[in-house]
Amino acid sequence: MEFNYPIDYTLYNTEEITTIIKFLDLIEECYLSGVELTEFKSTYKEFKSVVRAKSEENSLYRDFKEITGFDGYLAVKEIKNEKPKIKL
Question: What number does CATH give the domain 19-86?
Fold first, then answer.
């Protein structure tokens, strides 16, 4: 899909923006085809090293859901289920 990511580009450097976009793309993939749990966990860990504040994370999820309809919170919540593949 083509859309503008809900990222404040003034807050992050290029590498951090790439990490955030990679994670948001993975959320989209969870809805479209599914993602291996291990891949999702490692990408989420990288994402959390950039977006440390829970409020900032929730804001990104909310804005991303408004644009795409894909809910990042639900994708992350699926980690707890420990299924080998996250498919929403």
Answer: 1.10.220.80
